[in-house]
Each structure stands twice: as C-alpha cells, then as structure tokens.
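Structure, all two chains, one model.
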Amino acid sequence: MNSSTSVAPSEIQPMLNQLQQELSAQAVGVTLRNVTKRYGSFTAVENINLEIQAGSYTCLLGPSGCGKTTTLRMIAGHEEISSGDLLIGERRVNDLPPTQRNTAMMFQNYALFPHKTVWENVEFGLKMRQMPKAERASQVNEMLEIVGLTKFADRKPAKLSGGQQQRAALARALVTRPQVLLLDEPLSALDENLRVKTRSELRRLQKQFGMTFVQVTHGQDEAFALSDQIIVMDNGRIDQIGTPSQIFQRPVSRFVARFVGDNNIFMGKVREVTPNSVQMEVEGIGTLLCCRENQPAEVGDSAACSVRSDSMSLRPYPPDDLNAPNQLTARVVSIEFTGYVTRVSLLSEATGAEITYKARSDDWMKQPVAEGQLVSLSWSSDDCVFLAH
Amino acid sequence: MTKTWKTYQPYALALPQTLVFLLFLILPILMIGLVSFWQFNGYAMVREFTLGNYTDIFTSNVYVSTYLNTFKYVLLVWFFCLAIAFPVAYFLAFHIQNQSLQIILFLVCTVPFWTSNIIRMISWIPVLGKEGLINSLLMHLNLVQEPVTWLLYSDFAVVLGMVHLYSFFMIAPIFNSMMRIERNLITAAEDMGASGWQILREVILPLSAPGIAIGSIFVVTLVMGEYVTVRLMGGGQSASVGKLIQTQIGSLQYPLAAANAVILLIVTLILVIGILRVVDIRKEL
C-alpha cells in the first residue's frame, strides 16, 4: 500500500479513482437488533443492539472470549444467529449465506491459500462467482496494481513478507467489491513496527474508499487509532459504545475503566446526587466528587468511580488542606521511566489500594520524588467519572 | 583431541545404521543383481555370465502377462484404497469436531492390524467361498441358482484382500495432511462463495495431495511385491510377479528369480519417482 496508495503512479490513478467511486457509492451500514448467539446452554453473545454507520470504521474491542469474534462472524454469515435481526444496509440477512451479504472478511493470519499464487488467491472470489475469465483477469490485475503486488503475482504466499501478505489478503477481500469489510484481528500477525505502519494504512484506505470497516481487536491502542466508533464488549454483552475519546475519558463501567488503561478505581457509598454530579464516601480516603452524565445513581448505593492515572496531580505530603475532597495520601512504591511517560506505582496505606500515577517524563524530572516518600495525590471532579456498574 | 572427536562424532553416530544398511540391504541387493546374470542348468546355478534370464523374461508371453497382471492389481488396489481412504480421512478430519473421538475413531481404523495378515486373509474364505456366507444368502434368497464362483480364488478376491490390507496405509497420511489444513482457509473459501464441492476441489484436495502421494507410495510398493494375498485369495488362478519369484525360488531357479526381482525393483522405483515428480511431499516430512 505504501508505494501505491500514497504516491500512485499516473496509470494507477484512474483505476484507483474508479474503485474509490464504486466502493464509496455502495457502502452501507450494519444494524444488529437483539442479536443473541447460543451454543447449547452457553450464551456467547447476549441481546446485542448495534448501529454501524455506512462508511465508518468500527472496532469491536474486548478481551478474548468476550464475544467480539462471534459477533463479527455472525455479520459475515459464518455463524448462525440464534435470535434477533441482522441488517446490512436495509436488507435483513439473517438467513443469507456469506456471499449474498456483500461482505468480505479479512482473516487473522490472512488465510491466504498456500497452494495458490497471489494472482490465484485474488482471483478466487471472482472465479467462485463464475465471472468470465477475461473480465476476471483484468479485475485481478487491476487490484494487484492498486495494492502494488503486480511484481509478486506469481509468488506463493509463503514467499511474501508479512506486509505483502497483508496486502494480498486485502486485495483478495476488495476484489469482489464488498459493501462492508470485516477484519478479524488483521494486524496481530505483524511485528510491532509494521503493525503501527499498517494500522495507519488501513485507516487511510478506509477513508479513501469510504467503505464500512468493522474490525475485531483486543488492543485498545489499535481501537483508539483506527475507529470512528468503539464497541467495548465483555462476557457476550456490550458494555459501552462510543468514540475513542468518550471511551477513554468517560468509561461507563468498571470493566471498561479497567480495560482501556491505567484507571484508578475507587469503591464507595453514594452520599449525594445532583443532575451532573455524585458525591461519594470512600473508606480510608474521604469524600470524592464525581461528574455524572446520565448514569443512574441513588443515595446509599454502593458504587465506583474512576480517575485516569494521567489526570491526577502529585505533591509532597502534607497537602494544604487535609480535609479537601478528591485527594489521597500514598507512598511511592516504584518509578518506571518508559520514555515519553513516567509511570509511578503507589500504595495508599489507609486503604491498601494500589494507585497508578502517570506524568510526562519532562514534568516529572523537574520535581522528582524518591521511592518510599509519602505524597499527596489530588484531582478535579471533572476527571473523576462516576461508574454505574 | 576434542577437536578430532568433534569432527568424527557425526560419522561415528551414523556408522551403526550405515553398517546395517550396507550389510542387510545394499549387499543382498548387489548379490541378487549378480545372481541375475548367472546361468541355471536345470539343477543348479552356474557361475557364468549370461543375459539369458532377462531375455527369457522379456520374450515370454507368460512373464509379460504376469507383469501386466501385477500392474492391474496395483492400479485397482490403489484406486479403491484411495476411494475408501479419502472420504474416511475427510470424515475424521472435518466432520468429527471432538478431538478425543477423532483419535478413538482413527485407532478403530487400525483394528484390522491387531491380527496377522494371513489370518485375516483366511477369514475371507468362509465369507466368500462356494458355501460361504454370501453365497448361502444369495441362494437362500433365490437370487442365484448356482453359487457365485468368482467371489473367491479370483482377481476380485485378490483385489478385495489387498484393499482390505492396505487402505489404512492410505488413510493415515491423508488424515495427517488434512489435519494440517488451517480451518480458516475453509472459512475464507466459504466467505468468497465457494460451495462444498468447490472447497473440496480448490482447497482440500490440493492441500492433501502430499498425503495422497505418501499413501500411494505405500500402497504401490506393497502391492508390487505382494504374493501372500495373491496365493491365498487367488487360489491357483491369479499371478503376480511376487508370486512368480516365490515359485521360481521354490524350484531353485535362483538366477531367474533374481532377474525378476531386479526388474520388479526397478519398476517400483520408477513408479515412486513418478509419484514424487507429480507431488512435492517435502513439507509433509
């Protein structure tokens, strides 16, 4: 993709433009209504409702076994739906086989046919559709030209690099002009450097073609970097749907807060509720003021809130006002320099809780604190998110 | 001292096996080759050079037709073994999802090997014989008036016996090849609209080709040298090169038997090389 999509030679440009027009004109959304998947008595996916916009990049994010891959495979038609409705565009496709759904899937490890050449791999879908030979050949050649694999057309997949295999898989998926492209952890087979590079190429391609991409991933970085919309799943249910920044800044549940990064979670009792704030009492720490959007909250409930490790401020003990809300006392356990960020682990001696604090390394070095020192951490109530469950 | 040992170590490790091969494989083959050029005077071998044994074989109609008959067995047995083994392996590899059941069923395929070949062959007699199970049934149902005679002591019986003996040698390598096919490939083929048959033809068959080749080598080499089954199941009616050699040894015609053995060896090697030319089995080993 490197050489061909960013700086396309002049003869590719018209092909590329045409493909771009075709693909963006036909992009459709995907809708899941009360979709459930059961295997015997085990429920893999429970009652999922989901709206994926045409031309958007959506990531299904969650730990392994959360039902994200099952959801993707249901959209593709490789798993049957136990109950509910699945719509691609306006069409209900519950009972349609994969080919009639106008989706294409890119598999983990690409699933390129090892006994076929790159050319034959890309040709496969068209051949199965019984497209006439001449037409097939011109479409395959064009697609290989676009992804920059023309020179490698006669090679077997084993003779390609990881990045080339990825492009071959992409060419194979796009050659049938799908309305929705489904990607099952497409970057997991690549090493770290190539992954970051390929990630941005995928994103650029999706924007360029205006296609609907739905991707499964277990990496939050990947989901943040790629998505218009992230769907966080846990235990077969959707925990949160939102933009990357919503998921990052306003997690709605303890699971999301834990999964998307170094959030500090405090458990306590609800003392006071206003339309956009909650006051909580946390044993050993004191009063916490949290912001609230529309999460349900009742006085007396046991509840939790989350504070991002990079939105706290750290000062030497003691603080100016020992009774102020949103602050705690902790001892520095260890300090990790990780480059741009310095990560500090602390222990709150009153509660026994482990606390993580992150600062820009430059800022940290101006005012370093030694391991074993007692410090005071505080944060604003805007950065303290009330978690409904 | 250590350096010299390091240099010779691999040779020392390879030595015992090399000696065994030299002594028990290469040397006997060379001796057979040598004997095949000796003369036979009706009573004993004469150590004088002759090409007579070979010219006898290539000019005698009996010998040539025996070779042709052996090829016929090879072809038929290979075909039926493949026809049985491919579906069985396919069923085991793709339809049985439960891994322990898969292993159990695979072991069930080996059950015939729990008794000796000869006993298994003899057990066919009460089934196929003139008064055997099948004939009694056919007569009882009035489907035939006279017992069917071609069931036993016939080419049919020989092929049946050998297919029974050797299909497992085809099942095992094909099953092994199929188990190595990534399941994602089949889903990918489905995703691109391939039907069951198309998946079989475009994906499964080419990817199990190495297994088919290995199985074919087993079956072809085994059938080429067969004489026990031919004798027991064919009665006196059927001939194969293996049986011919055995008969010639029985009548002490060692030079002629040796010449047949040499030809058989060369033909078998040509067949094996032919199979290896068609299919690349390296990735399977």
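Residues 61-95 of chain B form the longest helix (35 residues).
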